[in-house]
Amino acid sequence: MIVFPNAKINIGLQVVDERPDGYHELQTVFYPIPLYDALEVVDGQQFNIFETGLSIPSGSGNICKKVYSVLADEFDLPPVHIHLHKTIPMGAGLGGGSADAAFLIKLLNEYFDLGMSVVRMQDVARTLGADCAFFIENRPAYATGRGDRFEALDLDLCSYSIVIIKPDIHISTAEAFSRVDVNKEGRSLRKDIGAPIEDWHQLIVNDFEVGIFDRYPMIRSIKDQLYQAGAIYVSMSGTGSAVFGIFEKGVILPDLANRYELWYC
């Protein structure tokens, strides 16, 4: 059985408070995009993971091992062979590792007929990463808490073109949070996301951009270049380093494609 975990972008990412558990209270909008990994599970004599595609220094299969371990302990699963082919870059703010984990939860649930509900699968996913639970339902959502509490959102960008650019910079979550400030000024992303898209650049911000741009000016430059190319809204996704631009019509950006990893969605 094979599935295709997709990436996501964050439209707005606001850090609005500190939590007693040491995490931060966030507001963000998750939007799934058509940039895919491939994940296959077949019967095996012993458990193993085979990884192909993008080279991931820390081993992206680790989170898949955690998923299998959690579910194997609860449901006494037999061994399987997992093949993970990576296309979504890591350290980019695109949720690739979280998507792999969530899709593996759903795949194993179906493969072994475990009978887990959506809520149960989301609970398992929350133990693996803050944005992991989003990919269980995998539809546009306004998220709060650590980014793991969702409200369905009527948001459709299918008539627009989205360009993703990933510089050769890997940003860890820990580094990103060490550079961000809490902002309690009473902003409402839930309200602002309903504004016309051409007004988003005046309303919707990613709070991580200030600290990351200071440390990595190249990422700021990419944002500027996407606006110069005609994008109506540009933002760093998540904690970076990928930047996306929303265009009213399809575009080809050969100059940027020659300098950076670039995807047209």
Automatic annotation (TrEMBL):
Binding site for ATP: 89-99
Reactions that this protein is recorded to catalyse: 4-CDP-2-C-methyl-D-erythritol + ATP = 4-CDP-2-C-methyl-D-erythritol 2-phosphate + ADP + H(+)
EC number: 2.7.1.148
GO molecular function: 4-(cytidine 5'-diphospho)-2-C-methyl-D-erythritol kinase activity
Residue ranges constituting the GHMP kinase N-terminal domain according to the UniProt record: 62-136
Superkingdom field: Bacteria
Keywords: ATP-binding, Isoprene biosynthesis, Kinase, Nucleotide-binding, Transferase
Functional pathway: Isoprenoid biosynthesis; isopentenyl diphosphate biosynthesis via DXP pathway; isopentenyl diphosphate from 1-deoxy-D-xylulose 5-phosphate: step 3/6
Active site: 8, 131
Keyword DNA-binding annotated: no
Domain (GHMP kinase C-terminal): residue spans on this chain: 206-248
PANTHER family tied to this protein: 4-DIPHOSPHOCYTIDYL-2-C-METHYL-D-ERYTHRITOL KINASE, CHLOROPLASTIC
Family recorded in the similarity comment: Belongs to the GHMP kinase family. IspE subfamily.
Function statement: Catalyzes the phosphorylation of the position 2 hydroxy group of 4-diphosphocytidyl-2C-methyl-D-erythritol.
Record protein name field: 4-diphosphocytidyl-2-C-methyl-D-erythritol kinase
Organism expressing this protein natively: Albibacterium profundi
Phylogenetic lineage: Bacteria, Pseudomonadati, Bacteroidota, Sphingobacteriia, Sphingobacteriales
